[in-house]
Structures are given as structure tokens and as C-alpha cells.
């Protein structure tokens, strides 16, 4: 069951990578590379840091195949994806919520401190998008677009990490609940246009 | 003998990095950094992923020295390199063919699945060029230039990986043959200007 | 005592990252990300390469907290930092000197060759700044600004590595002396505007 959710997260992140490639008029190679890196990049960074090598992306066949599938869909039907963008954004929020929680819990499994587990949860959730933007030749959108994107991941990873300190709380309810919290915060931030500030005096 | 071929691949990739630095009017530090990262980046990424640390670039002296030599040559004689660009492109194709095969086989040695060995072969072959372009402030050319560059590497890595499944086929003939195939495809793609498509409807 | 110096280096590098974020009009998330990556990126790269996982940035709480502190200071008082830029540049030179030496010595501790220890010393010193610039959407300044920045790190790492070959020279005097040398070279290069050349004939 978490396996299925992981693959859903990978699929939506891959779609966002492939759509970025269409927007930049990249070719099919660029689509596949951006789809793979967006979907798998955050988890690969996390696994390299905690020493879980080869990273799961290099041991699981479905982790590699799902972004190929997403690329094929976007290749043929990308105008439809642009039309259903609100739905894609919802799935992206689901991926964000899921990845920040699974990333933090995996880091705890590898005996990192709670602070660093939270950090790795956020890296897992936003790392792929950062790599996608860097490879597309633009500043990572998470650094400037002022939408709440990293912060919901921070909250989800923090709550999951805090609850995980109690062994009797380990389980799918805590992880699903934390992921839902991050998902809800992200959706609320999109709905009511919550924004992060710039440095004092830099202005809007 | 494979050692010599590896160094030839490193040399030509380093030349392409140093020439990119000249084109961007970088200084000598930029030339050396781009030469090293272009030549060694793909292999470093592969070794980090499979857990072969320190990566071979950090244990072999000649891996580091050859890009320095390439930088020195480009520093003094870069106009000549621009003139012999067709030859440089041939060597680059040789490096591509060689790296995709050695990368895939090394991944198999580290017990990765055939699918992931192919993936790592391609990463070894194109990773350095991607890092070079990202550090030069441009979208990696492999993502958009529509020339067949990643695909010959994919074919070479796939053939090498498939044949390597039979232990009795392990050896220099299979690896050299696969590298030659990737090299030939790349050269043919340059000769007849084969191109990869963009997403349906994005047009030329 | 070296611990304190490390944190000073991290602090000043984090300040440079946060100031880059202000300059690019990034939001508070961008400030924190650039501060962390500038301060910790070089050391993380070094630790991944030598196999010291998790990297020290993911085991030490203060390594993560100090850049947060630097971000908060820049968030509220960044105009003051711009005014005291010469002092910030001095501290940055101190961080450069310190990181190139500690990076090289840590690599020697992990049994890398002297050549590769020097290389990793330079990567530790300049890696964070390179990642900062790549994430800010610009060519890493170390590649083109022609000021002596990487070269003092190269000298400091080389001297530290050479002296460290004699076990009886291991100690704080040699490391502090090598760091001071790199620091002094960097300050002198700023003071007298020493510059690195471009490739022959590319001109000024």
C-alpha cells in the first residue's frame, strides 16, 4: 500500500518534469531525463546522504519505469495535461506530503537525529523539483515563488518525526496523517494564496 | 589496454569542457574546473550511486592529471582545436561509446539489475556533459539539441548489458563491440543528421 | 577550538548565501536554502566522495542551526551587511582558508592520496559557493571572476597536505599556519587585485 502511494508520488512528479520539458521545447530525451530526475532526484539525494546505496531508484524497476510511462503520456497528450493542471497540482501536493514523511522516517530508520530527519524529509520532497529547475536553466521555483511549498513539507516532516519518537506510534496512521497534514496545508496555501515574505524592506 | 581507452575518453571529454570555458570567456580556473567535471563527472555520479567510494577519479592520479593536460593544450592552442572540431567530435563519440559500456559493466559488477546497469551506463556517458552545461549556465545540450547523443549511449549500454548476462561472453570483444556500436550510431547520426522528436504538436 | 573555527567558516559562508538570496529578491525559503547550501555544500560533497556518510552536516545540530541564525540576521539587517561587506569578505577569506585545510586533512584521514586530498580541500572550500551560484541561476563566480579565489585554497591545501606527510607535524600549528597562508593570499589578491588569465588570445 505505501508502495502504491510512492509510485503515485513518483508519477505526478514525473508528469511535472515532462511538462516542464514541453514548455521549454526540449526533445523526447529531455522529457525523459527531466521526468526521471524530478520524480527520483529527491529520494536519490536522501539515500546518498544516509548511505543507503544503491539508492532505491537504482534497485526498483518500477521507480524507473513509471516516469517513462508518465513521459509517454505527456508526449502524446500534453495539451490535456495543461487543461487538467488543477488536478495535476493536487496530485503534486499529494506527492509532496507523501515524500516529506517517507523521507523523514527513512532517515530516522538510518539513525539520524530528529532535526536531520526533518531536513531530509524536506530534501526528499523538494529536491527533485530543484534539480528539474536547475536543469531547465531557471532558478528553482521553490526559492522565489513565495507560494507555500517547502513549508508544508517542513510541517509534515516535523510532525511525523515528532510522533515517530514514540515507538508505539509507528505505523501507517501516523505517517498517513502527517502526509495528509502537509497535503492539506499545501492545498490551503494554493486556495487562499498564502505567501512567504522576502527579507525586510525588499518589498513586493 | 582498457585503461588507455578510459584515459582517451577522459582526454576528449576534458577538451570539450575546456573549449566550452574558452567560448564562455572563463578564466584558467574555470577551464580546469570544466575540464575536470566534464571528464570525470559522469563516472563520479556512477560511483557514488553504486557505492564505489572513493570514486575512481579520487583514487587514480592519471584521471586527475589528464584533464589538466587537456586544459593546458586548450589554453595555448584553442584556435587549433576549433579548426579540428570534426576530429574532436569523433573522439567525443569514442568517449561516449566507451563510457556507456564501461559504466554499465561496472554497475553489473556491483550487482545492479540489467535495467539499472543500462541507466548507469548512460549516466556515465552523458553525466559529465550535463554537469559541464549546468555549470556554464545553459540547459544541458543533451536535453534539447535533438541530435542523437543519449540514444547511441542507450543502445551501447543495452547491448553490452544483454550480452554480459552470459558469463562466457565477458571480455574485451563484447565490450569493445558494444562501444563500437554506440560510436558508429553516434557518427552515423552526425553524418546523416538524425534527430529526436519533440512532444507531439510542439513542432519544429 | 577547531570546532569553533568551523562554525565561524559556516557562518560567513551562510551570510554570503543569504545575501545572494536578497540580491536575487528570493523569499525567506530561498534565503535559508542558499545559506545552508553555501555553508554546508562543500563539506557534503567532500564527505560523499570519501564515504563519510552521513556527512557531518547531517550529524551535527550546530552545522544546521548556524546557517539558520545567519539567515535570520540577514533577513532583518541585510542593509547593514552590505555596508560591512569588506569585513564579510575578510571572514569569507577566513572560511576559505579554514575549509581548504580541514577538507584536505579529512581526506588524508580517509587514506586518499596527497593529490586527491588537495583536490578535496579545494572542493570543500569552493564547492558551497559553486552550488550557491548554480542555484541562483548564474555561472559560478569562481569560474570567471578572475580574482584569486580557488588558487589560495589550492596553495593552502597543498601546503597542509605536504606538511601532513610527516606524522610529527600533525597538529593545530600546521593546520592553522596553512589556513593563514591561504587567508593571507586571498586577502593580498583582493588588496592588490591579482588576477587569473584567460586562455591565450581571448583577451581582456
TrEMBL record, chains A, B, C:
Its main location: membrane. Residues 4-78, 90-164 form the Glycine transporter domain. Keywords: Cell membrane, Membrane, Transmembrane, Transmembrane helix. The chain crosses the membrane at residues 56-77, 84-105, 111-131, 143-164, 170-189. It is found in: Cell membrane. The keyword Transmembrane applies. The keyword Membrane applies. Belongs to the UPF0126 family. This is Trimeric intracellular cation channel family protein.
Amino acid at each position: 500500500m505505501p508502495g502504491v502511494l510512492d509510485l503515485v508520488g513518483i508519477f505526478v512528479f514525473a508528469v511535472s518534469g515532462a511538462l516542464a520539458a514541453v514548455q521549454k521545447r526540449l526533445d523526447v530525451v529531455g522529457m525523459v531525463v527531466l521526468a526521471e530526475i524530478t520524480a527520483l532526484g529527491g529520494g536519490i539525494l536522501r539515500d546518498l546522504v544516509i548511505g543507503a546505496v544503491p539508492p532505491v531508484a537504482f534497485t526498483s524497476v518500477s521507480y524507473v519505469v513509471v516516469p517513462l510511462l508518465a513521459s509517454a503520456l505527456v508526449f502524446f497528450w500534453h495539451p490535456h495535461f495543461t487543461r487538467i493542471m488543477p488536478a495535476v497540482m493536487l496530485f503534486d501536493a499529494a506527492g509532496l506530503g507523501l515524500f516529506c514523511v517517507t523521507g523523514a522516517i527513512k532517515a530516522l530508520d538510518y539513525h539520524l537525529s530528529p532535526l536531520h530527519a526533518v531536513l531530509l524529509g524536506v530534501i526528499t520532497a523538494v529536491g527533485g523539483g530543484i534539480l528539474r529547475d536547475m536543469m531547465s536553466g531557471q532558478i528553482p521555483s521553490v526559492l522565489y515563488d513565495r507560494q507555500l511549498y517547502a513549508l508544508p513539507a517542513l510541517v509534515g516532516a516535523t510532525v511525523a518525526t515528532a510522533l515517530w519518537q514514540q515507538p508505539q506510534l509507528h505505523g501507517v496512521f501516523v505517517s498517513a496523517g502527517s502526509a495528509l497534514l502537509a497535503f492539506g496545508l499545501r492545498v490551503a496555501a494554493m486556495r487562499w494564496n498564502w505567501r512567504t515574505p522576502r527579507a525586510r524592506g525588499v518589498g513586493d
